[in-house]
């Protein structure tokens, strides 16, 4: 009888365990459990960033492609990635001012987009539908995007995967580029599972317009007032999706119960890095763009994109370049923009007005500085990256800068970040004012950055050298 009793218990336990496993299998993603398949094959292949990859673009009329690059039309080509051939891929140039200026200066080193399913439905690179090849425009260090995305990933922000690749065209050397995962379907599945939400890339038609929707301001309940958002949706948008996002923006504008509209934890992690890298061509700058907006179940969050003008280099390229390194190394973490800009950026301003969120922001900033900079991690990252890419920069066939410029740029971005980390730590401890007004009154306490020349990281004037 005793044996039979234990057998019954074992059978019941087995049945219960089987039921639990079945529930986890069917509903695991909804419960926050990510299946092993959520780490796609492409992540461990092309985006293994421990070495420089090789991409050969096989195209019939490359010269014709370059002549018509500004039209941003897709051309069909084949692509060989690390020795493996993929056929019928869509290829086009990408960029706004970068594309225009590269053409204006008579150069042909464009950033590129490769879309695998453009000409052939279902075509992917091991599950990846699209990636871009970043040309390191206005980036002599070749590391602005690479480091910014690494910082975001360190802080737990869903960031595009990236790695370096040597690009050839029909077997002929073209240059060293950064491969960047495009935030579209594969990106959403990788980060949020198959039951992901909506993804937008808000952007203006003209900078001269008001662009309140790009700034994530609530305007009205009419979806037509949010054309800069919904026009740039990555997935099909239904009316209920529009209503849900607009309601989130309304709640954000009111400044109450913000947890009902904002993924507060993720947004602050994003802003920590965004503020640290002093990216003025962003949501916290005059342009207000260069970000992705993610929404799921009425909660919005911001995702990183485009850092070629970060690390305080947005103001460069003027007739007389601005080089106030001390200003930008010490850029205030609590008011990272003028009052006019901050008042019109509710996703930052309306959160920071509340003490509990303000404290959380400072806590995350302290954790970031301690974990990323104060234990030698950053220096190792810079050193290993330079060692890995230097031979490829040296032979870069279309580089915007010389090899010597690269070495100087890489050294400069490293110095900038370390001094910036020193200043942020002092701001968190109250030794340096953390607001624009406070620093205007007290300029003596700032970290000395007199040995940094910001244009060394890259400026538009470098395009003249390329000519």
From TrEMBL:
InterPro entries, alphabetized: Spore_coat_CotH_CotH2/3/7 (IPR014867)
PROSITE patterns from the entry? PROKAR_LIPOPROTEIN
Q: Matching PANTHER family, A to Z?
A: INNER SPORE COAT PROTEIN H
What protein is this chain from?
Spore coat protein CotH
- Is Repressor one of the keywords UniProt gives this record? no
* Keyword Transmembrane belongs to the record: yes
Question: To which species is this protein native?
Answer: Sellimonas caecigallum
Q: Which domain of life is it from?
A: Bacteria
A Pfam family cross-referenced in the UniProt record is CotH
Keyword annotations: Capsid protein, Membrane, Transmembrane, Transmembrane helix, Virion
TM helices/strands, residue ranges: 6-27
């Amino acid at each position: 009888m005793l044996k039979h009793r234990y057998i019954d218990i074992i059978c019941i336990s087995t049945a219960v365990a089987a039921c639990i496993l079945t529930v986890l299998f069917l509903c695991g993603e909804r419960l926050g459990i990510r299946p092993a398949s959520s780490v796609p094959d492409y992540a461990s292949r092309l985006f293994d960033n421990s070495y420089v990859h090789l991409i050969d673009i096989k195209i019939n009329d490359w010269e014709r492609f370059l002549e018509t690059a500004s039209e941003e039309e897709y051309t069909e080509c084949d692509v060989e990635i690390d020795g493996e051939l993929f056929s019928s891929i869509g290829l086009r140039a990408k960029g706004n001012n970068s594309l225009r200026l590269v053409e204006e200066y008579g150069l042909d080193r464009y950033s590129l987009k490769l879309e695998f399913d453009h000409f052939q439905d279902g075509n992917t690179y091991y599950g990846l539908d699209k990636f871009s090849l970043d040309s390191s425009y206005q980036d002599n260090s070749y590391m602005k995007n690479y480091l910014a995305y690494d910082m975001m990933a360190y802080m737990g922000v869903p960031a595009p995967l990236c790695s370096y690749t040597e690009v050839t065209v029909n077997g002929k050397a073209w240059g060293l580029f950064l491969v960047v995962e495009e935030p579209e379907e594969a990106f959403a599945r990788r980060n949020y599972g198959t039951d992901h939400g909506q993804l937008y890339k808000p952007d203006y038609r003209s900078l001269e317009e008001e662009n309140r929707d790009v700034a994530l301001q609530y305007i009205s309940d009419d979806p037509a007032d949010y054309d800069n958002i919904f026009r740039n949706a990555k997935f099909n948008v239904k009316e209920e999706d529009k209503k849900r996002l607009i309601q989130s923006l309304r709640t954000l504008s009111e400044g109450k119960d913000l947890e009902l509209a904002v993924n507060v934890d993720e947004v602050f992690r994003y802003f920590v890095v965004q503020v640290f890298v002093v990216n003025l061509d962003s949501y916290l700058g005059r342009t207000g763009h260069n970000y992705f907006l993610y929404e799921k179940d009425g909660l919005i969050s911001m995702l990183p994109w485009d850092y070629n003008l970060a690390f305080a280099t947005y103001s460069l390229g003027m007739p007389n370049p601005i080089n106030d390194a001390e200003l930008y190394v010490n850029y205030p973490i609590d008011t990272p923009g003028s009052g006019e800009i901050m008042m019109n950026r509710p996703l930052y301003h309306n959160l920071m007005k509340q003490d509990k969120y303000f404290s959380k922001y400072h806590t995350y900033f302290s954790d970031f500085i301690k974990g990323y900079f104060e234990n030698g991690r950053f220096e190792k990252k810079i050193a290993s990256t330079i060692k890995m890419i230097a031979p490829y920069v040296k032979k870069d066939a279309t580089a915007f800068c010389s090899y010597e410029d690269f070495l100087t740029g890489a050294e400069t971005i490293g110095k900038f970040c370390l001094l910036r980390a020193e200043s942020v730590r002092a701001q968190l401890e109250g030794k340096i004012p953390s607001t624009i007004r406070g620093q205007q009154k007290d300029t003596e306490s700032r970290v000395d950055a007199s040995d940094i020349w910001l244009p060394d990281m890259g400026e538009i004037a470098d395009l003249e050298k390329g000519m």
